[in-house]
Structures are given as structure tokens and as C-alpha cells.
Specification:
Blueprint (H helix, E strand, L loop, with lengths): L2 H17 L4 H7 L19 E4 L32 H7 L30 E6 L3 E6 L5 E5 L16 E7 L2 E7 L21 E10 L2 E9 L8 E10 L16 H12 L1
Antiparallel strand pairs: 1-2, 1-9, 2-3, 3-4, 5-6, 6-7, 7-8, 8-9
């Protein structure tokens, strides 16, 4: 073959390689996704149903699958309070553990471990139907019903601790949009001062990587108190070896010691 023809042939082959898109299956494999094993509903959408946790009880061996990006030696993670504007920072200085709403069995607006479904716990359950995704948490009688039939946010319900949620499918990713929060909760608990305003807006993206792995990404906006949106560290949850959560009820007697300790701190 003549040199000119060889050059043309090589150029044509390179052009074909560049123009040919990488198959979706190859992209998913590169990302560690094996969607062929993902359970699906009759409508074809992934079935998110199951009990999801980080791998073990809090502090237990194997826990950590839900802690997101960032390891030892890396930069400290960006948190919700770290993005407070000047006014919010000054207000935060007036608050401490004694002001934590969860001491009165009030849930968080998001979740102490950066998983909203968990609230202040480390286990949650999803029940999916043809029209709703229902998220349940073991703590504080927590639940949220998320319709994904095209309806918009309700304008006839009062603001609430966990907000009003609607969902939609973006391919195999379930997108949840939450608005209409009150300002009576914190984002987190356990003394982590993280108050928010009634302008809180949360968008979450749930995607199953395989039948036993759920990845969650979230972005939180609050123009009244934040200088910019908070991109929540990505969480990777595992399917738990049990299929039902248990209720961990909360009342003032359960947290009396915590309240007393917070009150003693206040008097110092």
C-alpha cells in the first residue's frame, strides 16, 4: 500500500474511533455499575425498595460505606454550617448543644450522617409503588411520601420539618425535590449547630449501581443563610441483611440525660 493510502487509512480509523460513542454498558462497567442485576418495577424503572444502611450499626465493624468521599489526610469536608454567610455565622455563635431541636424529639431537616432517609439514625427503608416512593427511618417516627406521577409541590399544606417532596425519573436515576420547610429544625443533630431558614431547598439523586448498592447525591440551597449551595458528600449505601426496620421511638424520658447535660452546660 502506498504511503498516502496508509496515512488515509489510519486517519479514517482514528476518525471512526473518535466518532463512535462508548456503549452505555461499557460506561456503567467503568463506573462500577452492573445495571443488569438491578431489580425493576413493571414500568421498567429500578425498584429502590429495601432496607439501606452503611454496612453495620453505628460504630460497628464494617461501618463506613455511607460516609462518602474523602479519607484520612484529605481536606476537611465542606459542611452546611461552613457555608454560612456573615449574619448566619454570628447567629450560630449564640447556639450550642442545649439548643439542638432533637433533644425534644424533633427530627432533622436532612440527616446527621448526610443521608436524609436516615435522619439521626443509620438505617432506612424504601417502599416503592407504581406512583410513590416511600422513605421510612427508624428514628423519630420518620417517613416521607414522594409521588412521581408528574404532580407539582403542594401549596395547600403548611411548612414542615422534612419539607414537601416530589420525584421524577431521569433515566435510571430517581430525582427528589424538597421545598416548603419550616425553620424550626437543624440540618443535623448531636450538638452540631446547623440551623437553616424556611427557604431551604434540597435536591437528591438516587441511583442503584447494582442490586445491593445505592448511590445518593444531593445539593442543598438556602439563600437566606448560605453563601452558595452545599454539595453533600456522595453516599454509597448497601442493602441490609434484613428486610424490615424497627421503630426507635423518642420521648422526653428517653433523652432526659441528654437534656440534663445540655442544661448543665448552659449554666456554666
Amino acid at each position: 500500500m502506498k504511503p498516502a493510502l496508509v496515512t488515509a487509512a489510519i486517519a479514517g480509523a482514528l476518525a471512526w474511533c473518535v466518532a463512535t460513542p462508548v456503549p452505555l454498558a461499557a460506561q456503567q462497567a467503568a463506573n462500577g455499575e452492573t445495571t443488569s442485576s438491578v431489580p425493576r418495577m413493571p414500568d421498567g424503572h429500578p425498584d429502590l425498595s429495601g432496607v439501606w444502611w452503611g454496612g453495620a450499626d453505628v460504630g460497628g465493624r464494617g461501618f463506613g460505606g455511607g460516609r462518602g468521599r474523602g479519607g484520612r489526610g484529605g481536606p476537611p469536608p465542606v459542611t452546611f454550617p461552613s457555608l454560612y454567610n456573615a449574619e448566619a455565622k454570628e447567629h450560630a455563635k449564640t447556639l450550642s448543644d442545649k439548643d439542638d431541636p432533637t433533644l425534644n424529639c424533633t427530627p432533622t431537616a436532612f440527616g446527621t450522617m448526610n443521608v436524609s432517609m436516615w435522619d439521626v439514625g443509620a438505617v432506612g427503608q424504601i417502599v416503592q409503588t407504581p406512583k410513590f416512593v416511600i422513605m421510612l427511618t427508624e428514628t423519630y417516627h420518620g417517613w416521607q411520601i414522594i409521588p412521581f406521577d408528574g404532580r407539582g409541590h403542594r401549596d395547600t399544606v403548611p411548612p414542615s420539618n422534612r419539607g414537601d417532596a416530589i420525584g421524577r425519573w431521569d433515566g435510571d436515576t430517581f430525582v427528589v425535590d424538597k421545598t416548603n420547610f419550616n425553620d424550626q429544625t437543624w440540618m443535623s443533630a448531636e450538638g452540631r449547630v446547623s440551623f437553616h431558614s424556611d427557604q431551604l431547598h434540597v435536591v437528591e439523586r438516587y441511583r442503584m449501581l447494582d442490586k445491593d448498592t445505592l448511590r445518593i447525591e444531593a445539593t442543598v440551597e438556602d439563600p437566606k443563610v448560605l453563601t452558595k449551595p452545599w454539595v453533600v458528600p456522595t453516599q454509597t449505601l448497601k442493602r441490609a441483611p434484613f428486610d424490615q426496620i424497627m421503630p426507635l421511638d423518642c420521648n422526653s424520658q428517653d433523652v432526659k440525660e441528654l437534656i440534663d447535660a445540655a442544661d448543665a452546660q448552659k449554666k456554666k
